[in-house]
Specification:
This protein is α/β, with parallel strands linked by helices. It has a single domain, classed as TIM Barrel (Alpha-Beta Barrel), CATH 3.20.20.80. Helices cover about 35% and strands about 10% of the residues. The chain contains 12 helices and 11 strands. The strands form 2 sheets. It has an 8-stranded parallel beta barrel with strand order 1-2-3-6-7-8-10-11, surrounded by 6 helices. Strand 1 (about 65-70), helix 2 and strand 2 (about 95-100) form a beta-alpha-beta unit. Helix 1 (about 5-20) packs across helix 5 and helix 9 packs parallel to helix 10. Mean pLDDT is about 90; it is low at about 1-45 and about 45-60.
Amino acid sequence: MARARWAAASAALVAVVLAACGTPAPSPTEPPATASPTPSRAAPPGPPTPSPSDPALAPEDALTRAVWVHLFDDTLKTRAGIEQVVADMWTAHATAVVVEVVRRQDAYYASDVLPRTADPALEPGLDVLQAMIEAAAARNLEVHAWVPLTPTWHEQYAGLPAPDGWVAAEHGRTAPENRRWVTRTVDGTWTDTLDPALPEVRAHVAAVVGEIAERYDVDGIHLDYARYDSPEHGYHPRALELYRAETGAAGTPAPGDPAWLAWRRAQVDALVAAAQEAIDASGRRPVLSAAVICWGEGPGGPGTPSFADTRAYREVMQDWAGWAERGLVDVLVPMNYFREHDAQQAAWLRQWLAFEAGLEAATGTSVVPGIAGYLNSRDDALAQVGLAMRSSRAVALYSYQGSTNDPSETLWRWLSAVDWSGAP
């Protein structure tokens, strides 16, 4: 696989790491969603007839027509809900489901690393990942286990009991300071996000990913939140000590200090490398993919001549173009979350799609553009899906629960009717 090229270069770093760890977020500056007019169309045809003898997809075809399914409603929390997802994906001619199985450091599957979630909506005894694997097998659907790496808390946990061993309680901002794994901002505020620079965070991530790879017959493992939240983040006292020891710097660097930014990018790289090495050590070969940031103008725009000028690289220290060049992951899934009816955002989408197609051609790392159905009308969502397919021959739709900006409108039969081409 592509990531083998990186493994040789990073073996020493990852060995140290392993000896010592929702949803994809749109740009925080996006305006409120506004529906655009939806022209009428004839009703799409019914679902196809399944063919149990269809061959399994080759590894290079992973995530060709994929849909993210998140855990922030009850869709995945019952067997009936899981069966409905699979039925809808079959109707849509999808090839893969990207199923969130960790919400905020709590497991919706059988784990010895993470505590079982305290979510009261989860059907008793249900292993969401195993149930999805079994249901999807009958429809020849790939299953990719979606793991948010660094968030530890969400308001939906307010009032719920803390499971034994939960990272948010044991290593969060209310834990004794010497046990905190969460990062701190430049002004000294502790956060709810794990610090990628800490060796124990990387070991934790490796344990989570490695356990899934070993125990479950998944087609892939999908990483999310492999990044910092902003340049103001990353100021954990021990992270600063490591930075000073490794670079010889003195004092506390400013958020925009070039050397400090570069060092934090390297910490994010190492976090992903820890996941990659854990998969390699499992003896299995699930595809490793990552959801990555595409905020604002894309490379090649007037204000962003190169990837190093983008918000992904500058603000969240996520050098995902470098990951492709070094083969750090098998598949990149850029979150191109833009509104088609907004002229500026539509232009940004096309900048990113052009860059992503070129990156795949130049590096050999697969790139599957992510599209935000929830920001668009039915026709605009279909149009963006078609753009992505024509650009990269693959697409991931966010999300199953919001395939359009109209809660009553889903894309499944429409996608089947147009074969994900976007044409009427």
